[in-house]
Amino acid sequence: MGRTKAFVEEEVLDKAIDLFWCKGYNAASMQEIVDHLGISRSSLYDTFGDKKALFMAALQQYRRKAGNNLKKIVNQADPVLPALRDFFETMVEESVTDTASKGCFVVNTAAELASQDASIASLVEENRQKVEQVFFELIEKGKASGEITNTQSSQALAHFLYNTMTGIKVAAKACMRESVYQDILEVTFSVFQVRN
């Protein structure tokens, strides 16, 4: 009969997210990971596998939680533009108040590891597609209601929003002033007006 685990996997993964998000993958040693998670090395290997498997599980959990927040926006977006604006304003507020200047876990991962690891590159690309699909659906809804009058393709506008989002998250690591973020948002949301 196997021993009962003395920890909750989701809570351990949340701790792993915190560590990898702050330090990155390469800078986090196995001893730091074990100490930060508060479980034995054998329990870590038995439950999650090696360091990379733990990292991937943490990244997936982060994406799940972030994805659920995006789904809420889609479900509650009526009208569309104020909901999108709230999403970006919240992101800016998080960036300004984050004293650790962490940025975004997925964006950081893309910068650190995507060019070196095909499985991570695939996960990052899958994340981009899912986020852009949410933006696409919101833009289509906004066009149908007459809120969004830009005549460019909804897919192109979704690419633009995703790029703006990731840019804000990268800028967060450089501790930009809130006024700069607000300039970015003003220009971003001006794009939804008529363009031929």
Would you write up a description of this structure?
The protein is an all-alpha fold and 196 residues long. The protein folds into two domains: 7-62, Orthogonal Bundle (Arc Repressor Mutant, subunit A); 77-196, Tetracycline Repressor, domain 2. 73% of the residues lie in helices and 0% in strands. It contains nine helices and no strands. The longest helix is centred in the last third of the chain and has 28 residues, at 118-145. The radius of gyration is 19 Å and the shape is elongated. It starts with 8 loop residues before the first helix and ends in a 6-residue tail after the last helix.
Features:
single chain; 196 residues; Tetracycline Repressor, domain 2; 9 helices; 73% helix; 0% strand; elongated
CATH fold title of the largest domain: Tetracycline Repressor, domain 2
Q: What is the overall pLDDT average?
A: 89
User: Biggest β-sheet, characterized?
Assistant: none
As for the number of domains, it is 2
Considering DSSP H and I runs of 4 or more, what fraction of the residues is helical?
over 70%
Q: Using only CA atoms, what is the Rg?
A: 19 Å
Tally the beta strands: 0
Distance between the termini: 69 Å
Structural class, by secondary structure, is: mainly alpha
SSE succession: HHHHHHHHH
CATH architecture level-2 label of the largest domain: Orthogonal Bundle
Beta-strand content: under 5%
Oligomer: single chain
How many H/I helices? 9
- 3D shape: elongated
Q: Indicate the low-confidence ranges by residue numbers.
A: none
Name of the level-1 CATH class of the largest domain? Mainly Alpha
